[in-house]
Write a structure and sequence with these properties.
The chain is built from one helix and eight strands. By secondary structure, the chain is mainly beta. A hairpin with a 4-residue loop joins strand 2 and strand 3.
């Protein structure tokens, strides 16, 4: 019996908890960057920073999990996957290829 062992998927998701990832290449002309904040081992927040505003805006809260090097994000019916490689997530979101880079200092 393995009552006290954690599955690999949970360990991988927990490894993202507390990390921040930024994509500076956006498809919105007024947007400076997109940000993913992994608040815990199950949820991720999506943020956007507009050039003409001081504060970032939280635009979604979603569930996530890791399976090997693939990130799966789900917000109701919306789903996207991203490939993790060398401290970067690459995803196709809203018909745009986005690369999120892990930030050295966490802000959460």
């Amino acid at each position: 019996m393995r009552l006290f062992s954690m599955s690999k998927r949970i360990k991988q998701s927990l490894a993202l908890a507390g990390t921040v990832w930024i994509c500076s290449s956006t498809n919105e002309p007024e947007a400076s960057y997109y940000k993913l904040v992994f608040t815990n081992g199950e949820q991720v927040e999506g943020w956007i920073k507009f050039e003409n505003e001081k504060e970032e805006q939280c635009v979604f809260l979603a569930d996530y999990h890791m399976s090997k090097n693939i990130l799966h994000v789900r917000k109701q019916e919306d789903i996207f996957t991203a490939n993790l490689e060398n401290n970067k997530f690459t995803a196709l979101i809203d018909d745009q290829k986005m690369t999120f880079k892990k930030q050295k200092s966490n802000t959460i």
